[in-house]
Here is the input.
Amino acid sequence: MRLRKGWAKRAAAAAVAIAAIPSLAGVTGQIGAANAWGPGGDKKPPKGFKQAFVNGAGMPNVKVRTWPSTTTAPSKAPTVVFLDGLRATWDVSGWERDSNVAFLSQKGINVVMPVGGTSSWFTDWQNKSSTNNQQYRYTWGTFLKNSLPAYIKSIGLNSSNVSLVGLSMSGSAAMINALNSGGFYKRAASLSGMDNLSAPGMPVAVGIASLDSGGYNAGLDMWGGPFDSRWALNDPTVQVNRFKGIPLWISAGNGVFGKYTPHPTAADVVQGVPLEVLALSQARAFQSAAQKAGLSNVHYDFPPAGTHTWGYWQDQVWQMQRTGWFGK
Here is the structure.
């Protein structure tokens, strides 16, 4: 009976995801233009800012934008890599456009933002997407394991203390890529992430979401069909025992409107709320598995309010900075 109840709970959560597919990327709400485009604005970036096109590991070269620490030597400052959401665009990262976390560079932290990855789940796909005439196979996992670390080292940023932070789609990706990096990413954060991707109904939900975002066939071409073992290999909850020794930050709101939704829109109600309820359910599933596995290196933060909105993710990042979670 216990197993059947657990299955029903996960299936219900996946149903919520399917109902809220159009905004799985976390596009509801913004912080405001005053914080967009990083320090100095896009037309007048600060000293040390770099934009380069980095070896795509089989994909076209990936745009990477970096802000080195301005208060400590970049070779000694912690480095943080931010991964975007489902509807990632190819001009700048949503982290740059819709939050102010690039300003961490003024607090002694190197900031790195790969650009793009729409519906990629930041993983290596087994095939090109068959539903939108994709011209190449996504190889984001290899890029994050090999190409990006090599680039970070080449420009003199600290490569011995690197954190990987993801939101929504990229929350679980941050965790799994940290596992697969051979120790390059020392810690990982999943903010409103899908941390139990192989739970009943979730592969279908992911497939529908990705079709809605760019027409990508993640349901079949990414890790195979919903019962393929690769879904479990990329599920942090299933892989929980492998996280011993990797500090994690897991956060999700509860769907209650807070300071970033003072006047909720229809999209906030129909999409932002159920998506965050799903994210919380997924985070709690991971927490339960982690407790059973005896993990002691996980920081959980479940605020009393919060929907699937950029402001809450921004707040989490600054809390990481204030508490010293990124290390020194």
Remarks:
- Strands lie at 50-56, 59-67, 79-83, 110-114, 162-167, 185-191, 248-251, 298-301.
